[in-house]
Amino acid sequence: MNASAPIRFNRQEWSGAFGDLGTDLPLLVGIILASGMDSASALTLFGVMQILTALRYRLPMPVQPLKAMAALIIAQKIPAETVYGAGLAIGILMMALTGAGLLDWVARVVPKVVIRGVQLGLGLSLARIALKDYVPAESTAGYILAGAAFLLTIALMGRKRFPAGVIVVGMGLVYALATRLSVADLAGAAGFHLPSPHVPTPAEMWTGFLILALPQVPLSIANSVLATKQVAEDLFPERPLSIRGI
Hints:
Layout: H1 11-17, H2 21-35, H3 39-57, H4 67-76, H5 80-99, H6 102-109, H7 112-134, H8 139-156, H9 164-179, H10 183-189, H11 202-235
């Protein structure tokens, strides 16, 4: 890992910054609404982690809500205190697995074809969710927007002067303002709210570990660790990234 790599602010970086919005925002909003979590705390910490990973890795590292945990939280309306405990528990567990060398061992024994399968499966899963839940929500306009965004992304792939991410998000924003949002409503909803800190109790950590962290661990190891390392090797071979570093 090249810790001295410069941080750039250009059109490509702005485009990449929107790369995870399709999964981040729906899951974050769903978790906040289902658990009663303080929105300022969740969004502030999420933003801080984005900044810290940029400074630490100097790579476009993913910082996302844990998908398996998110599904359980939204489906079962698990309270925020348990979610906080689960987050702390899974962090401690992943550090323990790393310190014991188990993640390095898993990375050595898992074939690359399995990692490619995880990447393909995740992509197909997200595409299925989009086509099943999000695109039809806007009826005909949804299919037109999705088709236009897909074709635009393919057409602009590799063209650094015209980053597709920014243009596609701009299309969505224009559509939203034209059909359902107003600048006045957005301005009226704006405000300032400080995060509310919470220290999980041992009971909250244990409950969160059992019902949320354990189902999440296999997905985190496969997708957040192994697949992330493989993507970094594919796109940034000059910046080696270790399992322990992730």
